[in-house]
Structure formats: C-alpha cells, structure tokens
Write a structure and sequence with these properties.
The protein is built from seven helices and two strands. By secondary structure, it is mainly alpha-helical. It has a two-stranded antiparallel ribbon. The longest helix is centred in the middle third of the chain and has 11 residues.
C-alpha cells in the first residue's frame, strides 16, 4: 500500500493544512517520514489503521493505493473498526 501523494496533498489542503507534510505531522509522524512515503515507501497496516481512526475510512480510501492483492489482504481491517 502506498500513499497517492497528489490525492493526499489535495485532501490536506481541503482540511486546512498547508501541505501533506503538515497533516502528516498532525497525525504524529515527521516531515522526514513523509518524504519517505513521497518517494514510494509502503505504508504499514498499523499506519493504515491509525489513519482510518484519525481521518476516517471514507477519506483514507481516496488517497491510499491498495493495489489489488493488498486490498484483498487488508480488507479485514474494516471489520476491526
């Protein structure tokens, strides 16, 4: 799973943040972490669950690229909410 950076940036601005990095920091991560994810680092299941809880599932699915296999593998996270 990866962040769709353009969608994440757009979401952050709509929420009143200057950038995706600022939103990322509000979620408890660092700007350096955000750069790693901008460069293609995969997000973890724990991070995905945290975003589900802090942002909401319906918004998160708009900026996370699950990939077909990953989506099937991680769909059980919805059952835990």
């Amino acid at each position: 799973m990866k962040l769709n950076i353009e969608e994440f940036e757009s979401f952050a601005r709509k929420q009143g943040y200057e950038s995706g990095a600022e939103l990322f920091e509000a979620l408890g991560y660092t700007a350096e972490d955000y750069e790693d994810y901008k460069n293609g680092k995969n997000i973890t299941r724990i991070m995905l669950m945290r975003m589900y809880m802090d942002i909401g599932v319906s918004d998160v699915v708009g900026f996370v690229d699950f990939g077909s296999y990953e989506w099937e593998k991680n769909i059980d996270l919805f059952d835990k909410l």
